[in-house]
Automatic annotation (TrEMBL):
EC number in record: 3.-.-.-
Alphabetical list of Pfam families matching this protein: Beta-lactamase
MF terms (GO), sorted A to Z: hydrolase activity
Keyword Ribonucleoprotein among record annotations: no
InterPro entries in the record: Beta-lactam-related (IPR001466), Beta-lactam/transpept-like (IPR012338), Diverse_Enzym_Activities (IPR050789)
Protein name per its UniProtKB record: Serine hydrolase domain-containing protein
Length: 410
């Protein structure tokens, strides 16, 4: 496995070491107060690791500390990887971004759209246009998540067994058939809604290739990029390095263990969720962010053309709108004000509206267990944060991370 360690003096990379230490001091309080079990953060600039720090435990009950090779459930940080997989095929001419997905996934033919009524008695109308590949990449397909608890269609997802996970034993193909049988929340392309769209995108990749998603990830992304610790589950010695999963206790918000959700990562899932199924390491995801920062290339290996990465990391919302204007006011892994959305990433449009020190063009995402990353091309900066507290809306970790990293840039 690739070793993760500091490669240069932060001062040589334009980061004040004393100011950078504020990051560790502030984040340490979350562990000291029992609000996080432990965490690991990585700051890189100009392609070199400037700062690696950790605090607390990957398993509080066993007394096992966070280490650089700890395995983390990255949940929705899987989405950018699936988006890259799709764009690998796009570059080979397998499909156009405007192609209807029912060419490969016929269950999504003749979709219906919710208009009124209840979860038990919905009133629907025909979709005015098909779901297209770019709708999946941008979360504008009209699909949803059961955990939103904000719309009758969300309740319909939950009734089918889709809330924080998929029904036991259901394959990705079967999940797509179930989602296709439910109404869309809105007409494709008319709004933004965080959803299972990237899981459907993963199924599209499988059908186009005629191979399971994990095989394609391993062959075309993980092996070329040297991501040796990333997979849909862990076993053997890797399972011993897997962090336990925690949730906030009602009232106190102290982190308490949840093995019911956590143990799923120790066996190969029936459903290979391109929207949230991977387990990874800081070193591996660091390599993925460097590949993105270098516009599709790492260590002499090019997976995507520079123009493709540029297209993926631009705002695709109509009229240059941000998520606040075009999205539904629901949970997502990023704030809505000032942020647009590209092909698999949030994209910062307006730092003033977002009330952040970050740069225009920064692209990012996070995972349900409070993991996060961002890439800032203007500053040639990448930042990673790993912990295992679900849901990610429990604490304002991501915005605080931005404050603490950017104030250290001198």
């Amino acid at each position: 496995m690739t070793e993760l360690k500091v490669e240069a003096d932060p001062a040589e990379l334009g980061l004040d070491p004393q100011r950078l230490h504020r990051l560790d001091t502030r984040m340490a309080r979350y562990v000291d107060d029992g609000l996080l079990p432990g965490w690991l953060t990585v700051v890189s600039r100009y392609g070199k690791v400037a700062h690696v720090s950790a605090r607390g435990h990957r398993d509080v009950e066993a007394g096992l500390p966070v280490e650089v090779d700890t395995r983390w459930r990255i949940y929705s940080m899987t989405k950018p990887i699936t988006s890259v997989a799709a764009m690998l095929l796009y570059e080979e001419g397998a499909f156009e971004l405007t192609d209807p997905i029912h060419r490969w996934l016929p269950e999504f033919t003749d979709m219906r759209v919710y208009t009124k009524g209840s979860a038990l008695r919905p009133v629907t109308e025909p979709a005015t246009e098909p779901i297209r590949v770019w709708h999946l990449l941008t979360h504008t397909a009209g699909l949803t998540y059961g955990f939103h608890h904000a719309h009758p269609v969300d309740a319909m997802y939950r009734a089918e067994g889709f809330e924080w996970s998929t029904p036991p034993g259901k394959t990705l193909a079967e999940c797509c058939e179930a989602w296709a049988a439910l109404p869309l929340v809105f007409q494709p392309g008319s709004e933004w809604n965080y959803s299972v769209a990237t899981d459907v995108l993963g199924r599209l990749v499988e059908v186009v290739l005629g191979r399971p998603l994990d095989e394609f990830f391993a062959e075309r992304i993980f092996t070329p990029l040297g991501m040796t610790g990333t997979a849909f589950h862990v076993e053997g010695a890797d399972a011993e390095r897997l962090a336990a999963l925690y949730v906030p206790q009602a009232g106190t918000r102290r982190a308490i263990r949840n093995d019911n959700l956590g143990r799923a990562a120790t066996r190969r899932p029936a459903c290979l969720q391109g929207g949230g199924g991977l387990v990874s390491t800081a070193a591996d995801y660091h390599r993925f962010t460097q590949f993105l920062l270098q516009r599709g290339e790492l260590g002499g290996v090019r997976l995507l053309g520079p123009r493709t990465v540029d297209l993926m990391t631009r705002n695709h919302l109509p009229g240059g709108a941000d998520l606040e204007q075009f999205g539904r006011p629901l949970f997502a892994e990023m704030p809505f004000d000032g942020y647009g959305f590209g092909l698999g990433f949030s994209v910062l449009q307006d730092p003033v509206k977002a009330k952040t020190l970050a740069s225009v063009g920064e692209y990012a995402w996070g995972g349900a267990a409070s993991t996060a990353f961002w890439v800032d091309p203007a500053e040639e900066l990448t930042v990673l944060f790993f912990t295992q507290l679900m849901p990610s809306s429990t604490h304002p970790l991501r915005q605080q991370l931005r404050q603490l990293v950017y104030q250290a840039l001198v």
